[in-house]
Write a structure and sequence with these properties.
heterodimer, A: 271 residues, mainly alpha, MetI-like fold, 10 helices, 78% helix, globular, B: 264 residues, alpha/beta, Rossmann fold, four-stranded antiparallel beta sheet, membrane (chain A), cell membrane (chain A), transmembrane (chain A)
Chain lengths: 271, 264
C-alpha cells in the first residue's frame, strides 16, 4: 500500500504522536545520567529529581523577599500581559479590518499605512516604547499589541475584501446599508478567520512577551528564565520552558475548540 | 404595448476603456413579463443585468424604473439571484430569508426582537414553505444541495417584494432533473406573486420554456481588425403568446422563427 493512503486510526495516531516525544525524553534522561555519572554536580542537564526540587521550592513556598509564590506570580504576570496585549490587538484588528475590508475609500486611505507599519520589526520599536511609556506594564503590553495587530489586520482585511462580491450585492438588494453589511455580513464571516489569526499570532506574542520581560521586568516567566540564567539554573529554565509550551498549547487548543463550537457553519469550508 | 413599462432602457451603452460591450440598447419591459436574455458568451448579457441591477453605471444612456431614473446603486426594488454565492453561508435558511426584513426594520442593530422578530419569522417561514424548503429552515447553506440553495436565494429575494427579479444563470450549475423542478417553481412563483422577471441564461430551451419574451444579444456589426470596437445589442426580440398555458403548442413555431432569423 502506498504511504499516501495509510491513514492511522485514532488510537494509532495518539501512539504515533507520543512516540517522538517519548524518544526525546528518554534520550535526554540517558545523556543527563551519563553526565551526572561523570560529574555529580553537573548543572547543564539536570535530572528530574533536581528539577522537581527546584520547582517545588518555586511553586509551593512563598519568596521571603516578595511574600509571593514565585512560579504562580510569574505565570499570572505573564498571562496578564499576554492576554491584555492579544486582547487589544484582536479588538483593534477586528474593528480596523472590518472598516478597511468593507469600505473601499477607507482601504485606499489607510491600507498603505497599515502595510507600512506591518513591515517594521516590532522589536525595533521596543526602545521607543520603553522611552515613551516607561519600563512598566504599558510598554510590554504595547509591544505585544503593536507586534501582532498589523499582521492580523492585513490578514482579516484581505479576507473580508475577498468575500464574494455577489454577497455584498445581494445584501444591498435586500436593503442593507454599509453599516448593516459590516455587522451582519462581514463581521460574522470574519470571526472564524479572526480566531485563526489569533492562533497564529500566539507564537509572535510569546516572543514579544519574553523579549520585553527579559529586558525590563521584576516578575514574569521570561524575566525568571533570564534571571536564573546567571546561575546556570537549568533545573528552573527547562521546567519554565515546558510550562510556557504547555500554556501555549492549551491556548491554541481552546481557541480551536471555540471556533468549532461557535461557528458550525464554517465547518468543512477550507480555510 | 399599451401599459406603461416597468423598466425602460434608452440608448444604453456600456464601455470598458475602449472596449464596447453594449451599444445603443433600447428596451421597454412591461410589468408581469418574464424576459429571457440569451446570446453567445461575451455578448454582454451579464453586463446588461449588472447595469439594470445597479452594480455598474452605464457609460451612456438612461435607465428608468417606474418612470424614475435609476440610482447607480443596488436597491431593494430589484432582487437578484446569481448562479452562486447568493446566500449567506453564516446564516441558517430562516436567517437568510429574515435578513431583508431585519435590515429594513432595524437600521442600527439589523436584528429584531420580541413581537417584531416573531412577525418577521412567520413571514420568512411562509416564504420558505412557498419555495419548498419547509423541512430545511434551520440548516446552513453548506448543508443544502445546489438546487435547495437556489430555492433559498429566490425566497430571500422575494421576501422584499422587488419590483423586478433579476436572475443571472440561476439554474446553470444544476443537474437537468433539478433544473426542471426549478423551472416549475419559478413559473409558479412568477404567476403567484405577479412578478416581473429578467433572466440571463445560456440555455435557449430554458429561455423559451420560461420566458414570455426572448431577447437575443449579439453584435450587429463585426470589425475583424478591432473586434472590441462594436458592442452587442438586442438583435432579436420575440414576444411569445403563452400567458395562459406554458405548454402551449406555439413553442415549435417560435423555435422556427428563431431558426429562420438565425439563418437570415
Amino acid at each position: 500500500m502506498r504511504w499516501v493512503n495509510r491513514h492511522p486510526k485514532k488510537g494509532e495516531r495518539i501512539l504515533l504522536g507520543a512516540l517522538p516525544v517519548a524518544v526525546l525524553l528518554i534520550a535526554y534522561l540517558i545523556v543527563a545520567a551519563q553526565r551526572h555519572a561523570d560529574n555529580p554536580f553537573d548543572k547543564i542537564l539536570p535530572l528530574p529529581g533536581a528539577m522537581g526540587q527546584a520547582m517545588s521550592a518555586l511553586m509551593f513556598q512563598a519568596d521571603q523577599l516578595t511574600g509571593q509564590v514565585t512560579f504562580w506570580a510569574d505565570t499570572l504576570a505573564s498571562l496578564y500581559r499576554l492576554g491584555l496585549g492579544l486582547g487589544i490587538a484582536t479588538l483593534t484588528a477586528l474593528v480596523v479590518s472590518l472598516v478597511l475590508g468593507v469600505l473601499p475609500p477607507v482601504r485606499a486611505t489607510f491600507g498603505p499605512l497599515v502595510t507600512g507599519i506591518a513591515v517594521i520589526p516590532p522589536i525595533a520599536l521596543l526602545p521607543i516604547l520603553f522611552i515613551a511609556l516607561g519600563l512598566g506594564e504599558t510598554a510590554k503590553v504595547a509591544l505585544i499589541a503593536i507586534g501582532v495587530a498589523p499582521v492580523m489586520i492585513r490578514d482579516i482585511a484581505a479576507y473580508i475584501a475577498a468575500l464574494p462580491a455577489e454577497q455584498v450585492i445581494k445584501a444591498q438588494t435586500l436593503g442593507a446599508s454599509s453599516w448593516q453589511i459590516m455587522i451582519r455580513v462581514a463581521l460574522p464571516q470574519a470571526m472564524p478567520r479572526l480566531i485563526h489569526a489569533v492562533r497564529l499570532a500566539l507564537g509572535p506574542a510569546w516572543v514579544f512577551l519574553i523579549s520585553a520581560e527579559a529586558i525590563a521586568a521584576d516578575v514574569g516567566l521570561g524575566y525568571r528564565i533570564f534571571l536564573v540564567r546567571r546561575y546556570l539554573s537549568m533545573d528552573v529554565i527547562l521546567p519554565y520552558v515546558a510550562w510556557i509550551a504547555l500554556l501555549a498549547i492549551l491556548m491554541d487548543w481552546a481557541l480551536a475548540l471555540t471556533s468549532r463550537k461557535a461557528f458550525p457553519w464554517a465547518e468543512g469550508q477550507g480555510r | 404595448m399599451s401599459a406603461a413599462p416597468i423598466l425602460s432602457l434608452q440608448n444604453v451603452w456600456v464601455e470598458y476603456g475602449d472596449k464596447i460591450v453594449l451599444e445603443k440598447v433600447d428596451l421597454d419591459i412591461l410589468p408581469g413579463s418574464f424576459v429571457s436574455i440569451v446570446g453567445p458568451s461575451g455578448a454582454g448579457k451579464s453586463s446588461l443585468l449588472r447595469v439594470i441591477l445597479g452594480q455598474e453605471r452605464p457609460t451612456r444612456g438612461v435607465i428608468e424604473l417606474d418612470g424614475q431614473p435609476l440610482a447607480p446603486e443596488c436597491g431593494p426594488d430589484r432582487g437578484v439571484v446569481f448562479q452562486r454565492y447568493s446566500v449567506f453561508p453564516h446564516l441558517s435558511a430562516l436567517g437568510n430569508v429574515m435578513f431583508g426584513l431585519e435590515c429594513e426594520q432595524a437600521p442600527f442593530s439589523a436584528r429584531l426582537f420580541g413581537g417584531a422578530r416573531k412577525a418577521a419569522r412567520d413571514r420568512a417561514e411562509a416564504m420558505l414553505v412557498a419555495v419548498g424548503l419547509a423541512d430545511s429552515m434551520h440548516q446552513y447553506p453548506a448543508q443544502l444541495s445546489g438546487g435547495m440553495q437556489q430555492r433559498l436565494a429566490i425566497a430571500q429575494a422575494l421576501i422584499k417584494r422587488p419590483r423586478i427579479l433579476l436572475l443571472d444563470e440561476p439554474f446553470g450549475a444544476l443537474d437537468p432533473g433539478i433544473r426542471a423542478d426549478m423551472h416549475v417553481l419559478i413559473q409558479q412563483l412568477w404567476s403567484d406573486y405577479a412578478l416581473t422577471i429578467i433572466m440571463v441564461t445560456h440555455d435557449i430551451r430554458e429561455a423559451f420554456t420560461l420566458g414570455t419574451r426572448v431577447l437575443a444579444l449579439d453584435k450587429r456589426r463585426h470589425d475583424p481588425h478591432a473586434p472590441h470596437r462594436f458592442g452587442a445589442t438586442a438583435v432579436y426580440d420575440l414576444t411569445l403568446n403563452k400567458k395562459s398555458n406554458p405548454e402551449a403548442p406555439e413553442k415549435p413555431a417560435v423555435l422556427e422563427i428563431a431558426k429562420t432569423q438565425e439563418n437570415a
